[in-house]
Amino acid sequence: MLEADFENLHCHLLNAGVSPRFVRRTLTELRDHYDDLKLDIVGQGVSVQEAAHIAGRQLGKFEVIAAHVTSRKELRRWSYRYPLMGRLALPILCVAALPIAPLMAGANHAQALVRWGAILMLSGFITASLFLAMQLSISLG
Question: pLDDT tens digits, residue range 27-44?
């Protein structure tokens, strides 16, 4: 199994609805097992490249591993396990979160909002001053 196979497996599992937590855990375990196999084979006197190919063959094809992982329903995200509920609940939760999102953003970035507000007030003052100067020059000119 090559590094590209690990990336393909990662994408395939996520697209199949497997929870990202289980995808990370599965890939970590597979990489660790692959590295252990490779080290054992290199310890037997085989070259590193040949050991990588042998370890990849021993680990198996990513299609078989992906089929095994995706067949387990308990590893899937809840929206894939209960699609009807996901179709109903996710839009409602998103609409409910809309009023809360600016408040959370404001609480997390209070200093940036204070700077932004101060800059807006300063730019408004400068613009008003320029408009006043233009109005006075037109009126008195």
Answer: 999 999 999 999 999 999
